[in-house]
Amino acid sequence: MATKDIVDVTEQKRLNEAREAGIPWKKWGPYLSERQWGTVREDYSQDGNAWDYFSHDQSRSRAYRWGEDGLGGISDDKQRLCFALALWNEHDPILKERLFGLTNSEANHGEDVKEYYFYIDSTPTHSYMKYLYKYPQREFPYRDLVETNRGRSREEFEYELLDTGIFDDDRYFDVFLEYAKEGPDDLLIRATVHNRGPEAARLRLLPTLWFRNTWSWGVDDRKPSLREEAPGVIQASHHELAEYRLYCDGNPELLFTENETNMQRLWGQPNASPYVKDAFHSYVVSGDAGAVNPARVGTKAAAHYVLEVPAGGSKTVRLRLTSARPGKAFAGFDASFEKRHNEADEFYQRITPASLNEDQRRVHRQALAGMLWSKQFYYFDLEQWLTEHNSHPMLGTGEGRTRNMEWFHMLNADVISMPDKWEYPWYAAWDLAFHTLALSMVDFDFAKEQLLMMLRSLYFHPNGQIPAYEWNFSDVNPPVHAWATLFLFRIERALGRADMRFLERSFQGLMLNFNWWVNRKDPSGRNLFAGGFLGLDNIGVFDRSAQLPTGGTLEQADGTAWMAFYCQCMLQIALILCEYDSMYEEVAFNFVQHFMWIAYAMDRMGEHHDEMWDEQDGFFYDVLRLPDGGATRLKVRSLVGLLPLCASTVLEAESASKYPRLLELVALFRKRHPELISHLAPTDKGFIGFRGRRLLSIVNKNKLERVLGYLLDENEFLGPCGIRSLSRYHLDHPFSFWVGSQEYTVQYLPAESNTGMFGGNSNWRGPVWMPANLLIVRALLNLYEFYGDDFKVECPTGSGRYMTLYEVAEELRNRLAGIFLRGADGQRPVYGGTKKFQEDPHWRDFILFYEYFHGDNGAGLGASHQTGWTGTVSVLLDIFARFDAKSVLETPRERMQARIVKEMVAGVES
Q1: pTM for the whole thing?
Q2: How far is residue 264 from each of residues 62, 63, 165, 621, measured CA to CA in Å?
Q3: What is the three-class DSSP state of 770?
Q4: Mean pLDDT of all residues in 168-196
Q5: Does the bond joining 796 to the residue before it have cis omega, within 30 degrees of 0?
Q6: pLDDT band at residue 730, thresholds of 50, 70 and 90?
Q7: Hey, which residues does 332 pair with through a beta bridge?
Q8: Which residue, 417, 571, 596, 416, is CA-closest to 486?
Q9: CB of 403 closer than 8 Å to CB of 414
Q10: Whole-angstrom Cα distance, residue 652 to residue 786?
Q11: Which helix (H) or strand (E) holds 902?
Q12: Residue 541 CB neighbours (<10 A)
């Protein structure tokens, strides 16, 4: 696509205006959480039990301290003024103001939302957005869901909302919520309610506008206000915002109250005001006319629509939230919506490969829309929070151990891409790095901002650690930020806009983080790294973040491979910086040297039984180093042993002649350590491959062939929908390890976890995980660039069919994308045996991007809206649709990336 074509896209113009002219097209967006209750931020308990301290039942009555939630909601970028829908079907015991789900202790596999909602569409500036919520017409089965799930064991299936039968006869409403921006501060809102049932049904619909409570905590007592300005018009005044008005078509009844806690209901204490947060519930559901403020003022307001929706018909409600003073609020309303929707179509038409079919395009677009809907304003002032807990370690208020005490410097107050706004409504560092790959396809500026954010002083720890997640910021996530940074920089540079400031700013922070890893996570100083769970939750024999039951330490194959990968990415960044300052050649050599020693440490010369590579098995394992000095390999064939494959990076031939000082240092290293070099690359060509390319890899050709034998074996890792996290071999051959009288077992579990390790709400003992598969695809493509067409492997193992590594990567991509696509039988593997999702025309084309997938059939599992990293399926669809093997093999990488970007990436060129 030509540059002019990119610029002529209307949505692209908005992105350019936001970046170049500071026009705040992204000021308003889907920045509300789907769940604020049960989070660490709202936990002021003595025992740190966040789930029980602030429950779903309390959420309608209790003001939040740090954020807000709502159905399909939006807010400004500091979440001061919020908007969302509330619903009542005249049968439920409560007003539906937020999604319902089970807590970690209520569900048999950890916390889980029990609702059906879909992020259907969004542009990167949120100029157009569309959301769908499916609301039963009969009483919502809250009690049944809690009691049935609580009574099930970890070995049983979860009990879902569809299982209750409440949708069996289609007595439900499809509530579509759409937004269209007339301007940066002018939002048109359309709620369309479809009755899918056989009879007419009534729905109470309450579009709700409210202020986040910032005045009740003794920090800033300035109180904003909402008031009825005229029939059907709510005026919103806030000292930090322009004056807004919500225009409500049809002059509905307007309700007002305060966004303040109902102390009387929760704790039997008197309320400061008779008008409290749950007033609309009391007014609509309980019929308490005195619950709302007759003066029609407050900090929370709603328009009360009573809709009689005919069978098979629909009703529409129109609203407008704006800082302007339109003469006729709804003049041209429908035409504006159509225009914004057409612009969204135009945008996605331009960035989507022409070769994708209709269903692939649907998956591609909904994946990216889900990424954009998963933005959330995340507010957490750790100094204030710790002070309020009497636990600030530097102010003499410490009263015992409180979560995250060492992070008192943190002040998070930004719009951040979330893993899942209900199950994980807090950022996770390594998730975020994967998010940026997909986000760069639609909003390059936002993607870069997300990476830099984690390296800013108000997030990044002074000791160099990147924060993990709010349950324990000091936990350790895999170090993938350098890789994501390099990915984004290369795309921009390929377009002639090398953002050296972004690269150098990132590199400085990443250097500190790299040193933190070296100093904190290599306990023996032997280039063998630990790190704890490293994002893989229950994959290990033991809880890898806890003290080992055997004593001693665990040398982790994945932790060590991650550090090798980190070295490679930092080397590549340093080489780019060398082009502008030759001093970085010395820095680059440090990463070359460090990589060599890490690779050697994993498999030293000679026969040893305390190294990660097992020559007999042809696989990498964690090593348990015991207090008496003994060591043993924990022979579990898992993703832990596949990740060394991912530490494979190729350098173009010309790089060898561009850096004389680096070449001098490398030559000296080779001279001093010839045995190390020969051991790492015992091939005819050593490190020299196709077209003179250089390879840095933990796996030499022999190791590569042996590891791929497992990877591509359908009885081991290769599943019908991707690479499993644990070999299927362990289904009939579970690994067992005894510590005294206690047996620790690891068995292949293709679906949910059967243990409570790390909360039990995810499972790395069998299912397919998209980010791990994406890294494996990357490794295969890199290795293909080095080995070329002459190197082929059997795929699947034992099939007699041989493929190049490109063809293997393409096969893996097809299996991964196939999770979401209709097969020859018309079924989507992601929905398993759920008939409603597979066959009903009102369900089957709305895609959910789950956290992980059944290792044997691809059914979606875990968090249902983890579009964050599962949305990277859009990247896989994109790249393989645009490039064949010849392009990958023969086109220098940055020219290839330039071609990709010119066709698909928005938000870069002006």
Answers
A1: 0.96
A2: 11, 13, 36, 58
A3: helix
A4: 98
A5: yes
A6: very high
A7: none
A8: 571
A9: no
A10: 9
A11: helix 893-904
A12: 22
Q: Look up residue 449 and give its amino acid.
A: E
| pLDDT band for position 907 (cuts 50, 70, 90) | very low
Q: Which two tokens stand for residue 260?
A: 């303040």
Residue showing tokens 């498999």: 603
For residue 690, what pLDDT is reported? 85
Within 10 A of 169 (CB to CB), how many other CB atoms are there?
12
| Cα 456 to Cα 450: distance, rounded to the nearest angstrom | 10
pLDDT for residue 684: 47
Judged against a pLDDT cut of 80, whether residue 497 lies above it is answered with yes
How far is 894 from 902, CA to CA, in rounded Å?
12
Question: Residue 4 pLDDT > 60, yes or no?
Answer: no
Query: What does residue 317 show for φ and ψ, rounded to 5 degrees?
Result: -120, 135
Q: Let me know: does 637 contact 764? Beta carbons within 8 Å.
A: no
DSSP tag of 611: S
Rg, the chain, Cα only: 28
Q: Is 185 exposed, middle or buried (0-12, 13-18, 19+ CB in 10 A)?
A: middle
What's the mean pLDDT in 478-483?
A: 97
Q: What is the pLDDT of residue 677?
A: 80
Q: How far apart are the first and last CA of the chain?
A: 14
- On the question of pLDDT at 57 being above 50, the answer is yes
Does the pLDDT at position 870 exceed 70?
A: yes
d(CA 473, CA 470): 5
Q: Give me the residue label for tokens 């709620």.
A: 191
3-class secondary-structure state, position 81: strand
Q: What span, in angstroms and rounded, lies between the C-alpha atoms of 835 and 842?
A: 12
Q: Residue 748 and residue 638: Cα distance in Å, rounded?
A: 10
Q: CA 647, CA 783: separation in Å to the nearest integer?
A: 10
Q: Mean of the pLDDT values across residues 106-121?
A: 95
| DSSP state for residue 616 in the 8-state scheme | T
> Phi-psi bin for 204: left (phi > 0), alpha (psi -120 to 50), beta?
beta
Q: Give the per-residue pLDDT at 491.
A: 85
How many DSSP H helices and E strands does the chain contain? Answer: 29, 34
**Among 276, 305, 302, residue whose Cα is nearest residue 291:** 276
**Is residue 759 helix, strand or coil?**
helix
**434 neighbors 420 (Cβ within 8 angstroms):** no
Encoding tokens for residue 346?
């135009």
Distance CA 95, CA 87 (A): 6
Residue pointed to by tokens 């992020």: 119
Mean of the pLDDT values across residues 13-28?
A: 97
Cβ neighbours around 546 below 10 Å, total: 10
Q: Look over the chain and give the mean of its residue pLDDT values, rounded to a whole number.
A: 93
Rounded to whole angstroms, how far apart are CA atoms 580 and 800?
A: 50
DSSP notation for 698-749: SS-HHHHHHHHHHHT-TTTTEETTEEBSB-THHHHS-EEEEETTEEEEE---
For residue 375, what is the enclosing H or E element? strand 375-381
